[in-house]
Amino acid sequence: MYKIVEKRILRPSVTLMRVEAPLVARKAQPGQFIILRADARGERIPLTVADTDPAAGTVTIIFQVVGAATETLNHLQEGEAIQDFVGPLGKPTHTEGLKKVAVVGGGVGCAIAYPVAKKLHEQGTIVHSVTGFRSADLVILEDEFARVSDEVCRVSDDGSWGEKGLVTDALRRLIERGERYDQVITIGPLIMMKFVCALTKEFQIPTVVSMNPIMIDGTGMCGGCRLTVGGQMKFACVDGPDFDGHQVDFDEAMARGRMYADFERHAREETCRLFQA
Prior knowledge:
This protein is of the alpha/beta class. It folds into 2 domains: 2-89, Translation factors (Elongation Factor Tu (Ef-tu), domain 3, Beta Barrel), CATH 2.40.30.10; 93-210, Rossmann fold. The longest helix is centred in the C-terminal third of the chain and has 16 residues, at 261-276. The strands form 3 sheets. Strands 6-1-2-5-4-3-7 form a 7-stranded antiparallel β-sheet, with helices on both faces. It has a 7-stranded mixed β-sheet with strand order 11-10-9-8-12-13-16, sandwiched between helices. A hairpin with a 7-residue loop joins β3 and β4. It is globular, with a radius of gyration of 18 Å. It has helices at 22-27, 68-74, 110-122, 142-148, 167-176, 190-202, 236-239, 250-257, 261-276; strands at residues 2-11, 14-20, 33-37, 45-53, 58-64, 81-82, 84-89, 100-106, 126-133, 151-156, 163-164, 183-187, 207-210, 226-229, 232-235, 242-244. α3 packs parallel to α4 (142-148).
């Protein structure tokens, strides 16, 4: 059992938890993830490690409540425990040797982008962060990105936070003013990453994306997280989650991601009714 030592509601549907998991905390690197079960009957879900404190033996996760498993997880309180917390899984994000990087995060994907930006900053890389949200009431980790970035571009769909526009608008402005990036790292909704990659391909900038498809076992056995990358089948859990964004078949990934949307919504509704009973 893994004790929750801190719980913070960042936004109405986004929660931060700091969990006692000493072995995971000692080994986890930015880009890696854990798989957890909230309780003994729970579904296995992958969540990217948002931060670690090896000295305290804690791992920070940030999640959006979208289905039954995250609804159940969100009902746990400080002092209670998570049933299973396995990791670190996947390959860490490659950061060595990069001198100047643009980190582009969208929505809750910023929780995954932040530890990458933090590691780059700590190793002396120049970091330009582009963070985007639908509106001001959905913003997370604003201060954290400011601390680890040499420059931050903030955008929102409705203009209520930062500049009105998309992350691709801000990234294009940076590139067209003469910024030369060794790499762009982008993490967020699939449609956002698709268009970021279309932009960077235009300028021939190497681009890494973090893929988080449906995942069950996290060891490559179930095949649920399969993707097509460069015309070949890959498994996000063992081959990724980071991939060359210019090689990912985003249309296929988006189609697969929509397959269980109705089931997920129904399962959450049933779970909410159980908690209310």
